[in-house]
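Worked example 3 (structure in, sequence out).
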């Protein structure tokens, strides 16, 4: 495999001020990414900004409807799609307003003046905004926030099949395909005696679409086509469940729970039932699947197996 890189620029520093860093564009890649974005205003992008912008941008690319994602520390703290970009934005922010402070926001539609005003009004502090386009009035509104980083990048196409995901380790390099696997409803299996309603099915599909963008162990709580609670990066799955539910608060009741990998024990199911979760989607594949299914049947809680997992390290 041959790669050709061109330095875009030196960065002020890396993940921390004592680390040197630079940003390169992969000239062998056919995928449109942050290296192709036009920065329209604001302070220089940092190492961490670039990582978070890329994560947020890839999330909204997955949706045909208007969609918004808010990312902090490479994890989404709010994702929503809706009939309008404004509705999707409010839904995404409302998922976790505390964590949205200082976040990176991505939009898969053009931002107009009304949307720009709403972003500034509803956000205590936003680091970066990336969208497909901005009208002149929106640019003028954002220009009042001199430090706000505003980027333009067409939201089009998926990651090229020829592109690979690289993870460097000292003395070596891990190379893998990107996780581009998607599922239709027909690919999933209801494994419980209780079946999801049609409305719940739609939320299950949304939850499964977004959980792949959350660091494992990942738990996402959804209502309709919006996240209401996200638990990320925990060493035990039940802790991710507890965090997601704490974030969601009262919105846990009736929400759907999506898990990026199987449940090794019934503890998460018991916590979910007490909180009022209406259905669960997960890969299955645990040696204790039968116990987990039996717990769901006891609580009359619908559960769907996908047969694939979405670990994200």
């Amino acid at each position: 495999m041959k790669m050709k890189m061109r330095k875009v620029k030196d960065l002020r520093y890396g993940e921390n001020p004592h680390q040197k860093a630079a940003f390169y564009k992969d000239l062998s890649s056919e995928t449109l990414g942050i290296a192709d974005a036009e920065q329209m205003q604001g302070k220089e992008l940092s190492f961490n900004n670039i990582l978070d912008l890329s994560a947020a941008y890839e999330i909204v690319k997955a949706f045909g409807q208007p969609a918004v994602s808010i990312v902090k520390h490479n994890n989404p703290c709010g994702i929503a799609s809706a009939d309008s970009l404004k509705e999707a934005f409010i839904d995404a922010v409302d998922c976790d307003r505390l964590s949205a402070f200082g976040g990176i926001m991505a939009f898969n539609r053009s931002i107009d003046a009304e949307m720009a005003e709403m972003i500034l009004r509803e956000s205590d502090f936003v680091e970066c905004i990336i969208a497909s386009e901005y009208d002149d009035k929106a640019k003028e509104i954002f220009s009042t926030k001199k430090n706000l980083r505003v980027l333009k990048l067409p939201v089009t196409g998926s990651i090229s099949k020829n592109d690979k995901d690289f993870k460097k380790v000292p003395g070596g390099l891990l190379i893998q395909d990107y996780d581009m696997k998607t599922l239709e409803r027909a690919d999933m299996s209801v494994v419980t005696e209780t079946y999801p309603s049609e409305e719940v099915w739609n939320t299950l599909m949304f939850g499964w679409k977004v959980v792949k963008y959350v660091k494992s162990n990942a738990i996402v709580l959804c209502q309709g086509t919006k996240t209401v609670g996200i638990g990320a990066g925990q060493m035990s799955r039940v802790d991710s469940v507890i965090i997601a539910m704490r974030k969601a608060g009262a919105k846990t009741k009736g929400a759907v729970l999506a898990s990026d990998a199987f449940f090794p024990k019934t503890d998460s199911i018991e916590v979910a039932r007490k909180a009022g979760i209406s259905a669960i989607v997960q890969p299955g594949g645990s040696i204790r699947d039968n116990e987990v299914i039996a717990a769901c049947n006891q609580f009359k809680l619908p559960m769907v197996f996908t047969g694939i997992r979405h670990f994200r390290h």
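Notes: The mean pLDDT is 95. The chain is about 30% helix and 25% strand.
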